[in-house]
Input
Amino acid sequence: MLKTEPEVKNKDQSLPSPEADNNQNSTSQNQDQKQIIWGKIDVVYNAAKKAFLQGTSSIDDVLSSLIATIQEIKNNETQKLGGLGTSPANGNLLGNELDRQQPEQL
Output
């Protein structure tokens, strides 16, 4: 009887690598983020539609408000926001203020 070598799986048939898992998680998180952003647009659109159909706002007011609000969503989602917590973490909440102070003279 001939002994056969154990079957070796191709690299393509092996379990997913950690990098593949990270890519899949990243893709899933990206899809979740897209759903959240689009949800904001849906809310704004539905509110504008309701206001117009109920007659509480004119088409001019509805469209102006809709455009301004969607533009605001766009700005918030596409531009980096400045402010507290956006600079690299350095463990110093006062920035470099303490570094700029003159040492006390003895």
Summary: The two ends are 93 Å apart (CA to CA). Confidence is low (pLDDT under 50) at residues 90-99. Residues 18-53 form the longest helix (36 residues).
